[in-house]
Amino acid sequence: VQLVESGGGSVQAGGSLRLSCVASGDTIGRYCMGWFRQIPDKEREGVAAIDRDGEISYADSVKGRYTISQDNAKNTVYLQINSLKPEDTAMYFCAAAYINSCPRTSDGYPFWGQGTQVTVS
């Protein structure tokens, strides 16, 4: 599966963004789909994931502000981010794993997009 993210940008604190991850080559319903973020010199941090059964999990740090969803007809996974804060500034990556239970760490995901930058000021 190939993944392409979009939707990042520069926004003011308090604003919202919706990131998109379009998949090709396979159907996202067969995968666990995760969103990660990374700032320079830090490890990738998982923020949200949705498994094959539609079960969703979030990192504690983003609960209430981040929402992951998927549209199987469009083969796309979304990450809605509300009430943006400067600490949300990062490169955001979409990832896929052909596995029942979503991995908790980035090394469990073999498929990655190129990332989309979110900058909050």
From N to C, what is the helix and strand string? EEEEEEEEEEE
Taking all Cα atoms into account, the compactness measure Rg is: 13 Å
Helicity, as a percent range = under 10%
Give the averaged pLDDT, no decimals.
96
Rough outline: globular
**Largest sheet, if any?**
7 strands, mixed
Alpha-carbon distance between the two ends: 34 Å
| Number of beta strands | 11
pLDDT < 50 stretches: none
- What class, by secondary structure content? mainly beta
Percent of residues in beta strands?
over 45%
Describe the SSE topology:
Layout: E1 2-6, E2 9-11, E3 17-24, E4 32-38, E5 45-50, E6 56-58, E7 66-71, E8 76-81, E9 90-97, E10 111-112, E11 116-120
Parallel strand pairs: 2-11
Antiparallel strand pairs: 1-3, 3-8, 4-5, 4-9, 5-6, 7-8, 9-10, 9-11
Q: Can you offer a commentary on this structure?
A:
This protein is mainly beta and 121 residues long. The chain has no helices and 11 strands. It has strands at residues 2-6, 9-11, 17-24, 32-38, 45-50, 56-58, 66-71, 76-81, 90-97, 111-112, 116-120. The N and C termini lie far apart (34 Å). The mean pLDDT is 96.
Précis, in short:
The chain has 121 residues and is mostly beta strands. It is 0% helix and 49% strand. It is globular.
Give a quick set of tags describing it.
11 strands; 121 residues; single chain; 4-stranded antiparallel sheet; 7-stranded mixed sheet
